Fold each of these.
Amino acid sequence: LFRSVRMVPAPCKITVLARHEMFAEALQVALTSAGHEVQRLSPPESSTSATRLVEAVARTCPRVLLVDPDLDHDGASALIRTLSRCGVSVVVLTAEIDRARWGGWLFLGAYAVLSKSVSLTDLLAAIRAIGAGREVLARDECHRLVALYHQQRNEVRDCRARLDALTQREREVLAHLVHGDTVSEIAAVHVVSEATVRTQVKSILAKLGVTSQLGAVSVAFRARWRPAVPARPGPGGPGGRR
């Protein structure tokens, strides 16, 4: 995806913000050795507001921000969106393999998204490309990733809308299915007949527009619905833990 770039003699002012200190320090050392001016920021605490995070990075006045979006902090998206609008070239470095998420970061304004496994040679080439005002990722690839992001986002919305049609009890039954419980186990927990549970499952399948329990579980996962582990029957009787 990298295009050929010419060498740019002027060093680039870079800020590195990553969750893992060792990874960030290694980047700082490598980029400094390559002649760039690099500043490394410590990962923000979870209590740090998105605004304070943006301000902390902005004070470093970077030309390029190398950021790990998985900061255990909800300000990463605001950081990408705000700084990119202020003229900072935000390069996302991630271990994420879901290309739809890559498209989401590009949609927010990231200049490029690169895998953390990218070679130092390619990372330096990307920084040189930015310094020269050239693309890092091919334009058609960026469009493809952003389109994938929108497709997945629409799918999530659709699946969540279908889940919203379920009653509270049906959501409880679906939670059991998500965690692998059988009809007989669900019946034992809720002290109802297996026929009642089968009727509830049938209603769940109809509302979700699927024909099997596996399909219902798939809708839950595509909606990114992660219910708590429900009570399960055990040796002590209904509602116990096994």
Amino acid sequence: MKHFWDERYSAHDWSYGQLPNAYFKEILDSLASSGSLLLPGEGERRNAIYAAQQGWQVDALDYSEVAQQKALTWAARLGLSLNYQVQELPVFTPPKPQYDLIGLFFLHLLPEHRATLHQQIPILLRKGGKLVLEAFNPRQLGNHSGGPKREDMLFTQAMLSHDFRDLHILQLEERTVTLNEGIFHQGEAQVIRLLAEKKH
């Protein structure tokens, strides 16, 4: 996986664009205050930079050293601080024990790895902390706008309800959207969106 992502991020200036994920931006802009944010599988920095500009303390993780260096270089140009670590997923060591917000965006892993990653998320949220997620659902198969070609790596409402059953679900829906996120996420796409909160 590390080799795959290093190659992808080396071959293109911005594989998934420079603007933040639209759903992430919508949720972040709706929150009354900033805090600590964890972004596993962050990639080249698009969400991390936007969050840091809004005053969030950002911890980002990814497989790829190429992505890390691109993110840190861009943050330095803007005078922003990111804590960006290269770590393997799904098992990782978070920089902090708890977060106000965790974002997972198009982080499609093999089923057993997905379950392992998702099990860690409620533990890493502090009380009142939120999870925001966007990924492809099975109806995305056959589209050319991004995502894995294996159905068992795509997300359903039942899957996410089960994986995050310890959180209070605020929003869980499948939607048709038009992606404009770099060269690999372009065009009409079938996504699933989740917003959940840790109540206790």
